[in-house]
Amino acid sequence: MKDKQTKNLEQQLLEAVKNNHTEKVKTLLSQGANVNLSDASEVPLVMWAALKCSLDLFQHLINEGADTNQKGIIQLTETSHYGNLTGIAAAEGKFDLLQYLIETLEIDVDDPEIKHGTTPQWTALQWAISKGETAIVQYLLAQGANPNPLYSHTTALHICIQKQAINSFKYLLKAGAKTNLPGYRPLLSEACRYPNHRFLEILVEQDVALNAEKQAPIFFAVAYGDLDRVKWLIEKGANPVVQDAHGHSPLSLAKKLGLKKIEKYLKKLVR
After folding, report:
1. What's the pTM?
2. Residue 194: which CATH number?
């Protein structure tokens, strides 16, 4: 059991770190406060330092013995959390901290978050893509980050499409990201859900199959009522009479959804 004085010191240190109060942190550490304490939610002090402190103060904590192997869950929303140091640095755009963690402290560039429930853990690369930190994406890939980290039914390329991060998308492909991982949502179909045609163009340039999927991308273009995208896909080689797993065609889907313009266009092609 911790005595009252120890608990008080630790609470003060936690608050000083969260407020980036350098002198207060140094004073409390000199008084014996535990640099490796965890809060009531079992989040280690070093993670709060990564989120809240300057690089200088973070380095001071490391020099005082903070253990960077510690992990916890900093809950951001009901469905989002931070679970490791490199993820925090990447998501918060703390480039200097990320470099320090990877190059000086030699934390693995693909270090995963702590496991939380059944959800696969993110790496720094996924956080950087999600937050639009393109320069950090480049840096992580240059440091040897795996361009194919997986999450639920999505890859890093899916995150790029969802966040409309076209430059990160290009960097991932250049680094060897795979466009056809079995068991993951087809990228062309994912791209059809969003307005930027450039993702589709790049994928077609990569020779991603337009018709060899259980759910060909043309079905998504039809479902979203996007006649221009339907036309574009067919011009690039999409089969207008392809059938999905239930035997439906793009034309039958257009009829079912009452999309008259798309229906009229497709009828001309399938006569």
Report:
1. 0.88
2. 1.25.40.20
